[in-house]
Amino acid sequence: MQHPEEPRQALTSPAPRRRRATVPGDETRERLLDAAEALFAAHGYSNVSTRDIAEAARANPAAAHYHFGSKEALLEAVFRRRLDAVNAERTRLLDVCLAEAAAAGRPPAVAAVLEAFVAPTLRMGATEEGHRFNLLAGRSSTDPSPEVRRLVFAVYDEVGRRFVDAATAACPDLSKEELFWRIACVYGAMMYIRADNGRLEHLFGPGFSLSDGEGALRYAMPFLVAGMAAPPADGEG
């Protein structure tokens, strides 16, 4: 009988890169995180078992449960390993732009608010590890499984609310409904860039890549800023 967590065929992922560790258990933990990140990004949370992850990490089949307790806790560890520093930087940049605006007695600049929220995330794609995580984050943003939705809300809510508050202050002429839709467009663009599903590269041909974080900042950011800063659609601003 097939094990309930064992897939019908082996899943593949890039071989996790070994990191120097002072304790063997720490090295195993890092390999599990690398393998989980790659497999979740490639196949989705629901289609990967802890046994798949242990096999890709060259670890004991029970290693994932030993180090993390559950698959859901492992997914959270994967997210927090990358996101804690990114969210801290987003929060710091938001604090800076809000403080500068308050000192000058004006609303925060739309460009500064978007730069604080979007840029740290897009810059992650410049490294192999960051690009792999961006693929996972992009996929997870539309994952319907309750475990993934709970995690996405938990790890993004605090900084997300800070961004909404800052955007509200930066766009005082917008109704709440219009601000909602403009922020939806910002999120949509950011998630599509991070998901990097190859569709645009297919349409444009070789030489283009959504993993080019600096290109995204150079070309996509002015577009997003212009959209957020545009006059209200109803003309009442």
TrEMBL record:
- Would the keyword DNA-binding be found if you checked this record's keyword annotation? yes
Keywords, sorted A to Z: DNA-binding
Protein name per UniProt: HTH tetR-type domain-containing protein
Q: What are the boundaries of the region Disordered?
A: 1-26
Q: Which residues carry the record's DNA-binding region feature? A: 49-68
Do the record's keywords include DNA-binding?
yes
Q: Which organism is it from?
A: Rhodoplanes elegans
Q: What residues does the HTH tetR-type domain cover?
A: 26-86
Identify a single GO molecular function assigned to this protein.
Answer: DNA-binding transcription factor activity
Name of a matching Pfam family: TetR_N
